[in-house]
Specification:
Layout lengths: L1 H23 L1 E6 L7 H17 L4 E6 L8 H6 L5 E5 L22 H15 L8 E7 L5 E4 L13 E4 L3 H9 L2 E4 L5 H6 L5 E4 L1 H6 L8 E4 L9 E6 H6 L2 H9 L3 H22 L4 E3 L2 H11 L2 H11 L5 H14 L4
Parallel strand pairs: 1-2, 1-3, 6-7, 6-8, 9-11
Antiparallel strand pairs: 3-10, 4-10, 5-8, 5-9
Helix pairs in contact: 2-10, 4-10, 4-13, 5-11
């Protein structure tokens, strides 16, 4: 009887310890709108999730999921508590953001890693949490140089007029309007369908997206604007109440590998994917705009800085011109040529 009771006590103690260990572990769900092999996930968020677990000593874990949801719904899914975290694109949430457009403007320069480091630093110093209601950004980033990709070659600026081009909203839509394009607004997940059905003649994306979303057979002409045509503002967001519910040690561990670190990590993942795409399509696959095509694009982008400055000032930013200048100076400080 003594051995039986001792054995029972040992089992009970072990069960109690396992229960307390399980109780101590906190798992947060992060939703992403690209597949597990996409660079942001495989070379960015997967690495970051491991870093969170290591920093917290196993106390905090990130479960990355790939639900079949519209990317435009991700901010609201986090805000309402359906998901704890998500990778979101600001341009998909029409009318909610103004200050984030600073990273999307033509001529910012730099690669994705350089621009993402600069973006986090300047946005947090100058804007903080003023735009993200109900959610908290813990990473801000952009992809590599935005380009125009078309099914047919563009040899004259006049050819832009009337072309049906998919855009992601925001500054891209303003550029499209300046060129006389017919804008087809849609998330990246709809691009292949639109191109294959002739709904769009081309798209605005970074070169990486053409490869990762299997668009290379549909758009074979890739045009780069010197100094970069546009960026795309994106974030990793967390439900603010969830962030506040973390213990001090959990929150400290999360933020120790987030912020500028997470922003740069995902920017670097974008750059690596751009390199892979260019190698796959060939070293001469990207055409740098020149001549009449460049002139048309310069005309289309003229005034976009001033338009953003006016909108940002109206939205309550005291000196948007100085903030934009600070962002571009910081991108250069990160090593951009």
């Amino acid at each position: 009887m003594i051995r039986t009771f001792a054995g029972f006590s040992a089992v009970a103690l072990a069960a109690s310890l396992l229960a307390s260990t399980a109780w101590a572990e906190r798992v947060l769900t992060l939703e992403t709108y690209a597949g597990p092999k996409h660079a942001v996930n495989a070379a960015g968020l997967d690495i970051w999730a491991k870093q969170v677990e290591e920093a917290s000593g196993g106390e905090l874990k990130i479960n990355i999921t790939y639900p079949p949801v519209d990317p435009r719904d991700l901010m609201d899914r986090v805000r309402t508590g359906i998901a704890d975290l998500a990778w979101m694109t600001h341009g998909y949430t029409t009318g909610r953001f103004t200050f984030t457009d600073m990273i999307e403007l033509p001529g910012n320069g730099g690669n994705a890693e350089q621009a993402s480091h600069a973006y986090w630093k300047v946005y947090m110093e100058e804007i903080g949490m003023r735009e993200h209601r109900g959610v908290t950004p813990i990473g801000l980033f952009t992809h590599g140089p935005g380009m125009i990709h078309t099914a047919e070659p563009i040899t004259s600026g006049e050819q832009f007029k009337g072309l049906k081009i998919r855009t992601g909203g925001g500054v891209q839509a303003a550029i499209a309007e300046g060129l006389g394009l017919v804008t087809v607004a849609a998330p990246v997940t709809k691009a292949q369908e639109m191109l294959s059905q002739g709904v769009a003649d081309g798209v605005m994306f970074s070169i990486e997206t053409i490869k990762s979303f299997n668009l290379g057979d549909l758009v074979t002409n890739h045009y780069h604007y010197p100094g970069n045509l546009y960026g795309s503002s994106m974030a990793i967001i967390i439900n603010t109440s969830v962030l506040e519910s973390l213990t001090d040690s959990e929150r400290a561990a999360l933020m120790s590998v987030s912020g500028e670190h997470l922003s740069g990590l995902i920017g670097s993942a974008w750059d690596g994917a751009d390199k892979v795409a260019i190698e796959a399509f060939g070293p001469d696959s990207v055409t740098v705009m020149e001549g009449d095509v460049l002139t048309a694009m310069q005309g289309a982008t003229a005034g976009l800085d001033e338009a953003w400055i006016a909108r940002a000032k109206e939205a309550g930013l005291e000196d948007p011109a100085a903030v934009l200048a600070k962002l571009r100076a910081e991108i250069k400080a990160q090593g951009a040529e």
